[in-house]
Amino acid sequence: MAQSENGSKAYLISIVLVAVLGGLLFGYDTAVISGAEKGLQAFFIQGEAWDYTDMLHGFTSSSALIGCIIGSAASGFFATNLGRKKSLILAGILFFVSALGSMNPEFGAFDYGVPTYSLLIMFNIYRIIGGIGVGLASAICPMYIGEVAPSNIRGMLVSWNQFAIIFGQLVVYFVNFMILGEHTNPIIENIGQAVEGVVAPTSDPWTIERGWRYMFGSEAIPAALFTILVCFVPETPRYLVLVGEDKKALGILSRINGAKKAQQILEDIKQTLVVRQEKLMAYGWMCVFVGIMLSVFQQAVGINAVLYYAPRIFGDMGMTNPMMNTVVMGVVNITFTLVAVFTVEKWGRKPLLIWGSLGMALGAFGVAVTFGHAGLELVTAASIMVYSASFMFSWGPITWVLIAEIFPNTIRSSAVAIAVAFQWIFNFIVSSSFVPMFNMHLTEGDDFGHWFTYGLYGIICIVAALFVWKLVPETKGKTLEDMTALWRNKTTNK
Predict the structure, then answer these.
(1) Which pLDDT score, from 0 to 100, does residue 118 have?
(2) What percent of the chain has pLDDT over 70?
(3) Three-class secondary structure assignment of the chain
């Protein structure tokens, strides 16, 4: 039978598709704020007894990332004790609760539509709950795919998770665009006094009262679908071996790889799991350091400052329809993510990261030089597209591929958790600092914040390219068990 000899591709694809839905929710949850943040800001600015400052809005727009840090840091515990599958179910439930709670944070405790400080706290709690789900999914989805995928196509399949993240962002850009419809985002007037801004009288009240709620609530539909579908996928063979379920692991490996190859893979897994739990630094500090720095650079290059604030950025550039420009950027992002999906096994991980870093640097420096200059708006927009597209075929998907495959089996859960936690910590730093940094002025009306912010991102991109060139091992074509041997040899040869 074809399945027993070669495995079932349909079975593998079906379980990977369910897993990548977690990536879609990851993208959806983190990018939904891009369309909702101006309406949300206008809603809370109207609070009478307190001042909703730019700094406070920056925190509120990024508060989900606090949950992401918590969720990713805890992902190793959940992945080890609950398993990969049950952890993903938990993530789906958290997505669902957060979507409904963020849409109606007044539920059961506050007067509807009254922007109080206590309501702001409750809103942020719901966003943090969703962030915990994102943190779990961000670590465990690529781990799950990496542990079920054959080594010769593992990079491509894990890259589909990044495609799903970007697709989720595109979906929510489009959903936000459709929800907004003929309505317009509110106008926030900066008055330069103790109160940093007020809502302009000409602002559309529907966007302030309801629009942002519908945007957050729309996530409940894909969250419910994901939670249900995960119940029907198997646990990963490598986790099953970890908990002594060799027979179940062999059955799943046989369905994916064929009976003969499955037995060989099972033996390889068992050989690397003779010691079920090793100390984090058992393979040397460099192993963990490389994983952490991959995560740090993925965020420090500044991409999420663009993804989360795209409509605001395009609006500041003078574009007539910022939401439509954001959708176009989403389409570009999807297209270049596919470049990584179909080239990662051919070209390797390192070349894509290095070329992507250089492309991002070019785009970032282009934005720094041209932003705010009359007549150069299209050059600025093109530079942002180059910057974003370069990330999408490199640091976006390839970081997740490497994090899923670079660590040895016996420390993977804890090492992935630490690496992804650092990713979300730097995501929060970049996202929450972007608006105040971008609006910095040395003198009245100058563009210091514009060129400084993107100039800084460009320099970090150059450093990232050097880091990959010197320190990151190539993992193309290697099994997860090969990585155990690679790091063991590096430790032994010191």
Answers:
(1) 92
(2) 89
(3) CHHHHHCCHHHHHHHHHHHHHHHHHHHHHHHHHHHHHHHHHHHHHCCCCCCCCHHHHHHHHHCHHHHHHHHHHHHHHHHHHCCHHHHHHHHHHHHHHHHHHHHCCCCCCCCCCCCCHHHHHHHHHHHHHHHHHHHHHHHHHHHHHHHHCCCCCHHHHHHHHHHHHHHHHHHHHHHHHHHHCCCCCCCEEECCCCCCEEECCCCCHHHHHHHHHHHHHCCHHHHHHHHHHHCCCCCCHHHHHHCCCHHHHHHHHHHHHCHHHHHHHHHHHHHHCCCCCCCCCCCCHHHHHHHHHHHHHHHHCCHHHHHHHHHHHHHHCCCCCHHHHHHHHHHHHHHHHHHHHHHHHHHCHHHHHHHHHHHHHHHHHHHHHHCCCCCCHHHHHHHHHHHHHHHHCCHHHHHHHHHHHCCCHHHHHHHHHHHHHHHHHHHHHHHHHHHHHHCCCCCCCCCHHHHHHHHHHHHHHHHHHHHHHHHCCCCCCCCHHHHHHHHHHHHHCC
Q: Which pLDDT value is given to residue 181? A: 86
Contact 173, 325 (CB under 8 A): no
Q: In degrees rounded to 5, what are phi and psi of residue 378?
A: -70, -35
| Residue 203: predicted pLDDT | 79
pLDDT of residue 384: 86
Highest mean pLDDT among 34-43, 156-165, 208-217, 253-262 belongs to: 208-217
Please give the pLDDT value at position 272: 62
Nearest to 310 by CA among 453, 204, 170, 179: 170
Q: In the chain, what is the greatest distance between 2 CA atoms, to the nearest angstrom?
A: 76
pTM for the structure as a whole: 0.75
β-bridge mates for residue 189, sequence order: 198
pLDDT at 193: 43
pLDDT tens for 65-89 read: 889 889 988 888 898 889 999 999 9
Residue 3 confidence (pLDDT): 47
Q: What contacts 24+ positions apart, CB below 8 Å, involve 110-117?
A: 113/209, 115/43, 115/44, 115/45, 115/46, 115/47, 115/52, 116/47, 116/49, 117/47, 117/49, 117/50
